[in-house]
Amino acid sequence: MSPSVVPTVRASLDPFLPEHLADPYPLYERLRDMGPAVLLEGRQVWLVTGYDAVRSVLRRPEQFVSGLGTSYLRVADSGLRAPFIDNDAPAHTRIRRSVQRWFTPSATEAQRQAIRAHVGRLVAAALDFERVDGVTALARPLPVDTIAEVLGIDHPDAEAVSALADSVFHVLGPEPAFEHLQRLGEGLAWLLDEGMAALPEHCLGRVMVDAGGDTGGLEPEERLPALLSIWTAGVDTTTSLIANALHAFATHPEQWALLRQQPSLAESAVEEVLRYESPVRMFMRRTLDATDLLGVEIPADADVCALFPAANRDPGHYEDPERFDIRRNPTDHLAFGSGVHLCLGAPAARMEGVELLRHLAGRVARIELDGEATRNPNAVIRGFLTLPLRLTPA
Asked: Which of 115, 188, 211, 361 has the smallest C-beta neighbourhood within 10 Å, fewest atoms?
């Protein structure tokens, strides 16, 4: 297809606009119907929404590169390079291998008992109250505690950690407010001045800082941003997964009843939550040369935005994708990406979600909304700021 006839969408259909963030799915449907890729007026960004098209972008790293930047701004414009996501091979391979051992299935399994202990404590505390905020009571503290144990980072304020993680993802999107840039700077300063010095021996953070990871692959200038990347990504994406799960079950009580009847569905339920309400909205790729994407010619030096939630509700790939059904078990979803940049911490995030749902299924008869939930207006992460819930003990 010639670039001259590629559908161009007007600026009002910009998925980054605030009016599209709370409920982006009608817009995603319109964009999918227009073809594998469409060019957004004003921003001059190619939007990719269908499952096959998004998967193709993610699994063709030689054509759709990460080294120029995976956030809205290119590395050359922002001056910021996240080591794990803003590199191509061989640098990406070197950096990822430096910490890979800590995220293997066996390493993740070793965390299970600690995660269960955190879950038990948090659920018991939540059930002491008639009404709770699902974000502050469950979704935020569990990933903060979990990733802190792996890295060895002991920050005194869990809410500040969550705010930092949220700001990091704001900075990955377009036009971040100054407060998010300021919070990112403060987080880096705290890590440099206090956090890194206090890392205990034998934790991942200490190995990264002192030795460049297990293989020594992290260069000295990469160690601080790599530490920040794992810390904040491990918090905000999992926070969103958990909050999205609580909201999905509160608004689909028949699915909660099904999970309580069949707790073995917990793993499938987490996969369905990830498909139905993907925590990460988008990542960018760039082209070096003109390349074909399912019949659409993407020009050289193009900015390409892969919209994960749109792909995961593509009716061309999933039957009745607007339906939340925990029996679906969509293990091929793209919520954690695909290919060489598949999310490093995905196994841990899944385990946290599974352990929480299993424990809640045994302790909570009903999860109900108890007020209006507030969506996070973050252009990169889809989650909640507040989620008022009523948990009825079993």
From this structure: 211
Going along the chain from its start, the domains and CATH numbers come out as: 3-393 (1.10.630.10)
- Distance between alpha carbon 208 and the CA centroid of its chain, in Å? 23
Q: What value does the mean pLDDT take over residues 30-58?
A: 96
Predicted TM-score (pTM) of the model is 0.95
β-pairing, 384-386 vs 303-307, is unpaired
Q: What type of residue sits at position 299?
A: P
- Give the model's pLDDT for residue 1: 42
